[in-house]
Design goal:
Layout: H1 18-21, E1 31-34, E2 42-46, H2 54-57, E3 66-70, E4 76-79, E5 84-86, H3 102-132, E6 142-143, E7 148-149, H4 183-186, E8 189-190, H5 206-209, E9 215-219, E10 225-229, E11 238-241, E12 244-247, H6 249-261, E13 269-271, E14 277-284, E15 291-292, E16 298-305, E17 308-315, E18 326-327, H7 360-365, E19 396-397, E20 406-407, H8 409-412, E21 437-439, E22 446-448, E23 456-459, E24 463-466, H9 467-487, E25 499-501, E26 519-525, E27 532-538, H10 550-553, E28 559-562, E29 565-568
Length: 585
C-alpha cells in the first residue's frame, strides 16, 4: 500500500522496491511470504542447504532457486526470489466475514507460527550482532584535520590588520575563558595569538588548537554508527569541529545526483554560507558519525577563525560519559521525499527536518488526566412539506447545518437523489451559484450581493421578496381594488342602496401580512314584498400574501340599519385567516 510506504501519491510508471534498489536479496533462515500457483501469499522459512530433506534435494530445480518450508502445512518447494518478499513484524492474516474453510484455518495457524519464528530469528540476530559489534570497524574515510577546498572554492586569506583584539587581562589565571566575558568569545570570534594580549595563554583558540574531548565512534542498536563521549561534558563545552571538503553549489548538485543514482542514503552535507558547504562523506573527521535527534544534546555554531567561517559543535547541556552525541540536522528536504527519523525522542517529529513537538516534554514530565469531551450532536427536524409546492410526499432533505427544508425531486427538476453532501437551491445564487445569499421568503430564489439589485428587495411588511413575488403583490392589489369597486351598488332613483362589508383582521406575523379574503354583500329589494334579500359574494382565496386592500382601509361599522332592520356582520374568531369569511345577518 502507498500508505504503508509513507508515500502520498504512487509513482508514475513502474515501481521498484527498496530491497531491489539496494540489492537486498533474501537470506537463509529468514521468514518470507511466498506466492505459489493459485494459492494466496503464504508465510514460509528459507531453509539452509544443510537442513533441506533428501527427497526435496532430488526434485528438479535450477540455479538461483532455494528451498522453503511452508508454515502450517510444513510442505516444501523450490522457489526463486521473484516470488517472495520479507516477512515483517506485525503482519497478520487479516479478517474475513465469510465462513472459514479448512484452508483458512490452516492459514491462520501458519501466520501464528511465522510470527513466533520471526521473533526467534530476530533474537538470534541481535545476539549474533552483539558478539561481533565490538570488533567492527567504522566505514573507511579519509581523515582530515581542517577543511579542504575543492574545485573553484578558495579559503579566505587572513589579514592581521582586520583582526580585533580583546580586552582580557593577560595576567589572569585563564584569560579569554568562557567565564571571563571575552568580547571575541561573545561575538563567536576566535582570538589570534598574534593579536590577543594573552598570546599563547589565550583560552579562546579551541578551533586552531583542536582541543577536543576524547570521542569514540561506536555501533548503535538501530541507527548505524554513532559518536559518544568518553568523559563528562558541561553545558557550553566545545566538542569538535565539523570538518570536510569545502565545495560550491555546482559540485554539491553533482555529488547529490551521483548518490541518488547509486542509492546512497547517508549524506554528510553541511552549509557554511550561500556559496560554500562542507561534505564530510569521503573526507572528514569523527564528527561525521554524529546522528540526528529531535531532542539533541549538542548544537552547531558558526565561528569566525582567522577571518574565515568554521562550524563547531557545542554541548547544550551537561552530558555524562559514554553518552551518544547528537544534534539536530535541520535537514532541508529536496522534493517530496522525507527521511524517517529514528531518534526515539519523546518529541520526535517522525521525519528529519520537520519541527519537533514542543509540547511533548511537558506532557511527559507532567501527568494529566485527560477526559474526552463528548461531542454534542444537535439533531434538526426537517419540514414535512415541500418548500416549492407545499405538499407532502417523499422529500429530498437539505444537508445544511441549520436548514430544515425538503423538496420533491420533480419540483427541483431532478430524476434521482444526488450523491453525498447536498445543499438546496436556497443556499446558492441563481446566477453564479455562490454562497452568502439573500433569500426570498416565499420560494427558493436566492441572489448574492452582486446580483441582488433588481432581483430581490426588502419589503417592510413581507421581508425579502424576489421579483416574481413582488409582481404578484402588485397584481393582487390591483385586482382587489377593481373587485371592490365593481361590488359597490350603483345609485337608483327609486331604491336606496345598502352595502354591508366584512371586517378584515390583520395577521400577527411580524414579517408578512396573512392572506385576506374579502366578502362583499349587496342588498336588493324584492318587488313582491318588503323583505330584504342579502346576497353573499365570496372572493376566491389566494395562496400568496398581499398588503391591505381597499375594504380594509374603509372598514364599516359593525351594525347597519337596512329599511328598519338591524344587520350585524360577525366573523368567527377561532377560524383561521385562510378560511373565507361569511356574512351572517
Amino acid at each position: 500500500h502507498a500508505s504503508c510506504l509513507n508515500i502520498s501519491t504512487p509513482p508514475d510508471g513502474s515501481y521498484i522496491c527498496e530491497d531491489c534498489l539496494t540489492g537486498r536479496f533474501p537470506l537463509y533462515g529468514e521468514i518470507v511470504w511466498v506466492k505459489l500457483g493459485v494459492y494466496r501469499w503464504w508465510p514460509a522459512e528459507i531453509l539452509y542447504p544443510a537442513l533441506i530433506p533428501d527427497n526435496i534435494l532430488n526434485l528438479p530445480h535450477v540455479r538461483g532457486e532455494f528451498a522453503v518450508k511452508f508454515f502450517g502445512s510444513h510442505d516444501h518447494y523450490w522457489i526463486n526470489r521473484g516470488r517472495v518478499f520479507l516477512y515483517q513484524d506485525g503482519d497478520t492474516a487479516g479478517k474475513s466475514n465469510y465462513k472459514k474453510s479448512s484452508v483458512d484455518n490452516m492459514f491462520e495457524k501458519a501466520v501464528k507460527e511465522a510470527s513466533e519464528a520471526q521473533q526467534k530469528y530476530a533474537e538470534e540476530k541481535t545476539t549474533r550482532e552483539a558478539g561481533t559489534r565490538p570488533g567492527m570497524k567504522p566505514p573507511n574515510y579519509v581523515k582530515l584535520k581542517t577543511n579542504k577546498p575543492v574545485g573553484n572554492v578558495r579559503m579566505l586569506e587572513m589579514n592581521i590588520s582586520s583582526l580585533t583584539p580583546c580586552e582580557c587581562d593577560p595576567n589572569s589565571k585563564a584569560p579569554c575563558a568562557p567565564e571571563s566575558d571575552c568580547l571575541n568569545r561573545i561575538l563567536m570570534v576566535e582570538c589570534n595569538p598574534q593579536v590577543c594580549p594573552a598570546g599563547e595563554k589565550c583560552c579562546n583558540q579551541l578551533f586552531e588548537k583542536r582541543q577536543y574531548p576524547p570521542l569514540q565512534p561506536y555501533q548503535t542498536q538501530s541507527r548505524g554508527w554513532g559518536l559518544r563521549t568518553l568523559v563528562d561534558l558541561k553545558k557550553g563545552d566545545f566538542v569538535i569541529e565539523y570538518v570536510g571538503e569545502m565545495i560550491d553549489e555546482e559540485e554539491y548538485k553533482k555529488r547529490l545526483s551521483h548518490m541518488h543514482e547509486n542509492n546512497e542514503e547517508n549524506f554528510y552535507f553541511l552549509t557554511i554560507d550561500k556559496d560554500r558547504m562542507l561534505d564530510a562523506g569521503p573526507k572528514g573527521n569523527v564528527a561525521r558519525f554524529m546522528n540526528h535527534s529531535c531532542q539533541p544534546n549538542c548544537e552547531t555554531q558558526k565561528w569566525t577563525v582567522n577571518g574565515d567561517t568554521r562550524v563547531g559543535l557545542f554541548a547544550l547541556c551537561d552530558i555524562p560519559a559514554n553518552s551518544e552525541l547528537v544534534f539536530n540536522y535541520n535537514l532541508e528536504s529536496i522534493g517530496s521525499d522525507k527521511k524517517p527519523c529514528m531518534c526515539g525522542a519523546p518529541n520526535c517529529s517522525g521525519f528529519i527536518g520537520v519541527k519537533a513537538n514542543k509540547n511533548a516534554d511537558k506532557e511527559d514530565n507532567k501527568e494529566k488526566k485527560t477526559t474526552k469531551k463528548k461531542k454534542v450532536v444537535v439533531s434538526k427536524t426537517h419540514e414535512e412539506e415541500c418548500f416549492v409546492c407545499g405538499e407532502e410526499g417523499e422529500l429530498l432533505l437539505c444537508d445544511g447545518k441549520h436548514c430544515t427544508k425538503g423538496y420533491h425531486l420533480s419540483c427541483l427538476g431532478k430524476k434521482q437523489h444526488p450523491q453525498g453532501y447536498w445543499l438546496c437551491p436556497w443556499h446558492q445564487c441563481n446566477i453564479c451559484n455562490k454562497g452568502r445569499v439573500r433569500r426570498c421568503t416565499f420560494c427558493v430564489n436566492s441572489f448574492c450581493q452582486e446580483h441582488s439589485e433588481g432581483n430581490i428587495r426588502l419589503d417592510p411588511v413581507k421581508g425579502l421578496v424576489c421579483l416574481k413575488h413582488d409582481e404578484e403583490k402588485t397584481v393582487e392589489n390591483n385586482e382587489s381594488e377593481t373587485g371592490v369597486d365593481s361590488l359597490k351598488p350603483k345609485p337608483d332613483s327609486t331604491t336606496e342602496p345598502t352595502t354591508v362589508e366584512t371586517n378584515i383582521i390583520d395577521s400577527s406575523d411580524n414579517l408578512t401580512t396573512s392572506s385576506q379574503n374579502h366578502t362583499e354583500s349587496s342588498v336588493k329589494e324584492d318587488p313582491t314584498n318588503n323583505n330584504i334579500v342579502i346576497k353573499s359574494i365570496d372572493v376566491p382565496k389566494r395562496r400568496s400574501r398581499r398588503a391591505r386592500s381597499y375594504a380594509e382601509n374603509n372598514k364599516p361599522n359593525s351594525d347597519k340599519v337596512v329599511n328598519g332592520l338591524v344587520g350585524k356582520v360577525s366573523k368567527r374568531k377561532d377560524r383561521p385567516s385562510s378560511v373565507d369569511d361569511k356574512l351572517i345577518v
